[in-house]
Amino acid sequence: MKGQISSESEVISVPAGMVWDVYGGLKLGKLVDQLLPHVIGRVDVVEGDGGVGTVVKVTHPPGTPGIGYMMERFTKIDDQNHIKETELVEGGFKELGFHLYRIRLEIIDKDTNSTVIRSTIEYEVEDEFAGNASLVTTKPLETIAQVIDKYLSEKKINA
Length: 159
Fold this sequence. Notes:
Blueprint: E1 2-11, H1 16-23, H2 27-35, E2 42-47, E3 55-59, E4 69-78, E5 83-91, E6 98-111, E7 114-125, H3 139-158
Antiparallel strand pairs: 1-7, 2-3, 3-4, 4-5, 5-6, 6-7
């Protein structure tokens, strides 16, 4: 079974380049560690420098339903079009019968001072585990976008 879900989050008063500066490399993981440790968990770099091929481990906080961790590999970073893709390589949904779990983050100029973050999850799951597809959600990505919006808006005001 294959599927895809998407959501869009607007970042008010922050240009796309500023948002991409966070999402395009390792800054996002560092800010998740700093701003969302009890919601998303901890992000550790396993290998790489933030470019394609980088592997990060996301360890969810205790009490979070589901698998305790997941490891993702950065498979695409397009600085010109502000697109980043990661694929799950271990843990998380892999433990629930998923062959593919890909996250695509697109940072889109809405106008000169606001941005849209489009989060898309593509997945393939074994037919016998098709019921697990209902667990796929963009909610954590939306939460991250909201926190990054607030962080960047405050950073811009204080600059």
